[in-house]
Design a protein that fits this description.
It is a single chain. The protein is α+β, with helices and mostly antiparallel strands. The protein has three domains: 215 residues, Aminohydrolase, N-terminal nucleophile (Ntn) domain (Glutamine Phosphoribosylpyrophosphate, subunit 1, domain 1, 4-Layer Sandwich), CATH 3.60.20; 192 residues, Rossmann fold (3-Layer(aba) Sandwich); 128 residues, no CATH class. 52% of the residues are buried. It is globular, with a radius of gyration of 23 Å. The chain has 25 helices and 19 strands. It is 39% helix and 15% strand.
Length: 603
């Protein structure tokens, strides 16, 4: 994993480009290199996973074409065998070279067949073109800056664009999206003539013929080749084998839930008992998931390292937000980072994660509710204003125009009405409409399938894992997001109602896991947020100071009343602790330029 960066040479000098690259060192501090390719500075802050002697960016000696690559090619071994059979000799063992060779051999239309989370940039000085790519699910981020429609720069984090002079901000709608739904991945420019944006999963090409704009283009070869009649069990087994193949020590996030337990079963079938498992538990919480993690680790002969954390894990949040350049709305990023830091201390450089299983196989409790929700809500009925318990959320969903959108909200309408101002009307969905296909979806469950993949996974879970692991010096890999697994999940049950609760996964692995493990309910990677905020010596004081109260989107009196209720321990205030956390993440984002904190991995 790496941080990649490119900027036009006529815009900044080498020293400025190098300083921007250093802003990405938290993504990979093993090697920072900046080269000139045609009209571009191209740089990589590299976390070395494969071949330390094959640095990036990589330049083809014959053509001068160069690539900066972030991520992993998880079928790299197969690709190397294919090249060897053709008599081609690689310069080194870096995955980036495999992508560069494919581009030179088969053209840009072949580049949509990579497996593994990735984002990359290819600069081709022969035709004055830049090719940008983000993997099909958006596991790895890439942000661009265009001025007057012409591509000027790209980087793995908005913070690097800011170092290049492209000031970024959240629009009022993006801010509202964060405070209502708990996540945001987009970014906008503060300069009218400049457009800053996160690239959606696709291939993009910028060249003189398009005015230098990064425009998506359609590839002709289709997605990664998937075996016909694939079975989910076999597909996941092969995906785990690909993701666990590395030249460095590999670990597993073993939460105690179903998804990571299935990954442990696959590792056992591969004979990979060298993989170390890690489990996080917050101080003062029940240890039932830890007990389950212990049972799974014992069953499959894995060493289990137990990681505990309390309110002190909040102390890394300012550094993470400053490094990334966007608010981190999911508080579980703190738990994942604590786990990844411990793994890094043990020498682990790759962590397997179960992210994506619930989104693709409909494993969240809200999917059970979506089976019975109407496609359009009964908006004439009254809605509960406060509370985040299951029944209150369900009643609000029944009375919302978009029931499933309301079910995904991270804060209550009462919190937003009392503490915030300037938000769009409550009946307006802040989530992506999804185009005509989703506007005509026959059920709330059909819309759920779209939103889980194209909003929650893309804007919340994947950025969380990316930032949390890389800031600890570890690469996160998600076998459930392997193209073969995604394909099998989509064709296993044409009727989404038959998939709810991850039925196919439970049926496939039930006999391989400890007794009763498959019958547990979904819990998620939750943290005792209210307790952490109350125990932190700086979080609530920051929310209560005059700087926060003076923001345009804050009702100062309402916020002070809410903080007072929270400190008294009133139930409805404690239940909406996520709202205070989101305000804190947003405030840290707003203060990132005026009060830059430390961004080292030890922060």
């Amino acid at each position: 994993m790496c941080g990649i960066l490119g900027v036009r040479r006529d815009r900044v000098d080498r020293a400025t480009a190098l300083q921007a690259l250093r802003r990405l060192a938290w993504r990979g501090a093993d090697d920072l290199r900046l080269i000139a390719v045609g009209d571009w500075w191209l740089g990589v802050a590299r976390l070395v996973i494969s071949d330390p002697q094959a640095p990036q960016p990589i330049t083809d000696r014959a053509t001068g074409v160069a690539i900066a690559f972030n991520g992993a090619v998880t079928d790299a071994t197969a690709q190397r065998r294919e090249l060897a059979a053709r008599g081609e000799v690689l310069q080194g063992g870096n995955d980036a070279e495999l992508v560069l060779r494919r581009y030179l051999r088969d053209g840009p239309e072949s580049l949509d067949r990579q497996t593994g989370g990735h984002a990359f940039a290819i600069v081709d000085p022969r035709v004055d073109a830049v090719l940008l790519a983000v993997d099909p699910l958006g596991e790895k981020p890439l942000y661009v800056a265009e001025e007057h429609g012409r591509l000027q720069a790209f980087a793995s984090s908005p913070s690097a664009l800011e170092e290049l002079g492209f000031a970024t901000a959240l629009s009022p709608r993006q801010r509202a999206e964060l405070l209502r739904s708990g996540a945001v991945r987009a970014v906008e420019s503060r300069t009218p003539s400049v457009r800053c944006a996160a690239l959606a999963p696709a291939l993009y090409r910028a060249e003189p013929a398009s005015g230098g704009r990064a425009a998506p283009f359609a590839a002709s070869t289709g997605a990664a080749v998937v075996p016909r009649g694939c079975q989910l069990t076999d597909a996941l087994q092969r995906a785990v084998a690909r993701c666990a193949e590395a030249e460095v020590p590999v670990g597993l996030c073993l939460s105690g839930g179903i998804d990571s337990a299935c990954l442990a079963a696959c590792l056992d079938a591969l004979g990979r008992h060298d993989v170390v498992a890690y489990q996080f538990r917050a101080h003062g919480t029940p240890d039932d998931e830890r007990q389950r993690a212990r049972a799974v680790a014992q069953r499959f002969g894995l060493k289990l390292v137990e990681v505990d954390g309390g309110a002190a894990v909040l102390d890394v949040l300012p550094g993470l937000i400053h490094a990334h350049g966007l608010p981190l709305g999911d508080p579980s990023v703190l738990a994942v980072h604590a786990l990844a830091r411990r793994a890094a201390l043990d020498g682990i450089r790759v962590l397997l994660s179960g992210e994506g299983a619930d989104d693709l196989l409909l494993g969240y409790p809200r999917h059970q509710a979506a089976r019975w929700l109407p496609r359009r809500g009964l908006t004439f009925l009254p809605r509960p204003r406060f509370g985040m318990r299951a029944m209150q959320r369900l009643l609000r969903a029944w009375t919302a125009r978009e029931p499933f959108d309301a079910l995904m909200e991270a804060t209550s309408p009462g919190f937003r009405a009392e503490v915030l101002r300037g938000l769009p009307p409550e009946g307006e969905s802040l989530l992506p409409a999804g185009g005509d296909r989703e506007e005509t979806a026959p059920s709330a469950l059909a819309r759920a399938r779209f939103l889980e993949r194209h909003w929650y996974l893309y804007a919340d879970l994947l950025p969380k894992l990316d930032v949390a692991t890389l800031a600890a010096g570890v690469e996160g890999r998600c076998p459930f997001l392997d193209p073969e697994v995604v394909h099998c999940a989509a064709v296993t049950e044409p009727d989404p109602r038959e998939m709810v609760g991850k039925r196919a996964l439970r049926d496939a692995f039930r006999d391989r896991l400890p007794p009763g493990h498959m019958d547990q309910p979904k819990r998620g990677f939750g943290v005792p947020l209210a307790a952490w905020l109350a125990e932190s010596p700086w979080a609530l004081p920051m929310l209560g100071d005059d700087i926060t109260a003076g923001r345009d989107w804050i009702d100062a009196d309402g916020l002070r009343r809410w903080l007072a209720g929270f400190e008294r321990g009133t139930r409805r205030h404690l239940e909406d602790a996520r709202g205070l956390y989101l305000l804190l993440a947003l405030e840290l984002y707003e203060r990132r330029l005026a009060e830059p904190p430390r961004t080292e991995r030890s922060a």
